[in-house]
Amino acid sequence: MSYKTQKKLLLISFLLIPLLLMGLFFLFPFFRLFYMSFTDWDGIMPDYNFTGIDNYVEVFQTPDVWVALRNNVIYILNGVLQNIIALLFAVLLTVKIRGRNFYKASIFLPFIINSAAIAFMFTFLFDFERGPINAVLTSLGVEPVGFLSNLKIVNFSLAGISLWRYTGYTMILYIAAFQSINPEVYESAMIDGAGTWQNFIYITLPGIKTIVELNLFLTLSGGLQAFVEPFIITKGGPVNASNTFVLYTINAFTQFNRYGFAAAMAVVLLVLVLILTAIQKKLIFKGD
């Protein structure tokens, strides 16, 4: 057996198990989900009927689905704000200032806290009658705010929790990207008379372009998949005002036993992520 053949066999043997695992835990479930989206399976009984594209038609004709998508837009816009704040923190904490490691750890800490713990903590903070935020507002003579009961602001309250939690993670990615830029480039620019703002615009931003794209993708996909906060804190209420696309999908299966419809919604979500990501890459990054 030649060395070239042995090399190919070795590579195939190393790749075989990962490929099998990917097929078992990703490709097969996906194609199974896609197939079931064309059925009326209830997720329990072994029998089901093929319904064609009826589930997909219903997804786009259901008003509550569009309400859920509108709520997801709030999370996406909140994610854009999160990136701006994280980038600002990254710039400030890249400079050698006293205690910067403490500040980094403090900002990053919310990301490693359990999601349920964070949800219950903010449930207490946002409580209308006994919450400390409303207690402070009342002491200042301001009417208490229904952070979780007001239909107009409940989604902003929940999205604010995500902002607080994920800003530190986004910041760390930006800081790591800054450190990958060669310091000699900045030195050369300073010699040529470039200021701080010009360095940021013409050196820093192009140098972290890939990380910006990654963070925007995470913002987009994360905003469309928002689930934990409305599920634990409001259960989609009040009056479905804080329902999100994923929460609506899960409720369609768990509460109404409509697996086929829920599968169609999951496929639509995947397509939405792919389309919006392609638009983002085309418009913002010129298809690079």
From TrEMBL:
Residue ranges of domain ABC transmembrane type-1 in the record: 68-280
Places the protein is found: Cell membrane
Primary location class: membrane
GO cellular component: plasma membrane
Annotated keywords: Cell membrane, Membrane, Transmembrane, Transmembrane helix, Transport
Entry's transmembrane regions: 9-31, 73-95, 107-126, 163-181, 259-279
Entry-linked Pfam families: BPD_transp_1
A biological process term (GO) from this entry: transmembrane transport
Membrane topology of this protein: Multi-pass membrane protein
Family: Belongs to the binding-protein-dependent transport system permease family.
Entry protein name: ABC transporter, permease protein
Organism, scientific name: Ruminiclostridium cellobioparum subsp. termitidis CT1112
